[in-house]
Amino acid sequence: MLKRLDLDFLATEYRLPEPAIDLALDLTGNRPDAQAWLKFFGRLLGAAGIGALGAGMVFFVAANWQHYGVIGRFVILQTAFVVCAGIALWRAPPQIVGQAALMLATLLIGGLLALFGQSYQTGADVYELFFTWTALALPFALAGFSGALWAIWWSVLNVALALYCGWLGHEHIIWVLLDRWGIGKSTLLMAACVVNLAGARLFLALARSRFGGAAPYWLVRLLAAFGFVYGTAACIVAVSNGNVWSARTAAMTGQNWTIVVSFAVICAAIAIATVRSKRDVFPIALIAGSWIAISTATLINQIKFGDVDAFFVISIWLIATSTVASLILMKCVRAWRIVDPRAEVTA
Amino acid sequence: MITSTEELISLLRTRGLLDKVTATDDRGAESGAPLSASAHDRPWYVTVLLGASGWVAGIFLLLFVFTLFKPDSAGAAFVTGVVLLIAAWGLFMVDRDGAFVSQLALALSVAGQIAVLFGASESLFKHSRSIAGLATLALILQTVLIVVMPNRLHRMMSALFACAAWALAVRYGL
To answer: pTM for the full model?
Structure first.
């Protein structure tokens, strides 16, 4: 059967007029009927309901903080958690009810940890909460067999990594240790980049296995995007020679060079693999965006901001590089779509 | 039921719904061949790349213009902004398909929008603590730009910022 994606591609490529699109939808059986609309609304409302339930549970406790004792607050959240776990056992994934219950349970873990920290004033850092949340939610992510559940898990992990890499002050005990070992902020950010890119590679491999249902391609893109954000941040910190956020000073130049070269090598490897497979332009766009940002940061570091023309040079640099990047990307989009019109989605 | 692309294309051609006339480019030229990625089917990530770069470039351009001409009053900033917006509109009109020119025009427009809003807010809402007035002004400006600017990316960005401005105006104004 001709899929809707094929039709979308055809309609765009040939600029089909409205009557032609109508006819194509009818002839290929792609016009959504009442049942299809009901299914769509069911899924949409289901997703909105899960989010609202999770948020509602946490806000209920927060809004009624004064009215319940410590035990009462825990009972509310833990009861909800146990109910979710029970539903997930009753309608085990990949059934959608079980997956939804596990998503809610994953969100409730965060609420419970926050409640624990607030009630007993553990003194733990926020990043510790998120790392613990990640660890406790891992079994649910594994059992859920769902791309959405994995996306939540990776998002929590990335918040933890971002807090760990970016928001710890220089006086923190972690930095005292890291400084002693000669590890700079750019190295930490690069480690977070590698974790995400490794995750993207893993899920790309899973997509081609029998676990493909838990590894949609948008998740691979999401993880790649997370990875490139960290890689770009690592290189920007490195090119500013550790003086922007790092606890170290100019002595780290060698390490910073290693970071920039490592990221360049990673980008080159991804670019080569992408050009060989000719399936998705997205990784090339990430590479282009990253290096536009890194080169602009380098320019800003090198130029004296007292000069009037410095602003003009940076502006023109951004316009020129983004224009060239978009031309190259669109060339790839045109050429690679001919190979496989559904490449962007099915790759 | 039709099950292949070739079959569908053949049937559409037979019924006269897919011919050389249907495959026309932006300037109305007939080609007959399938059209490929134009601004209309630009992937969202290329749009994001261009939009984000255009925005940052616009901020630097604004700094350049302000450093160069030193508009010392709200009125001067407003006039500078209007001039930048007219320049952006002119560039969009002169060369709609040129990638570099479009990006330059986008940056000019961003700089112009910030300057206009700065100038207008300094004149009208200088002593106001709420951002509702500024948000309403931004909403009006973005709505005008959606209508006026002949560029898809610009319209998309203006629509996005109009929504954000509307949300702020409602939140802090009512």
So the answer is: 0.80
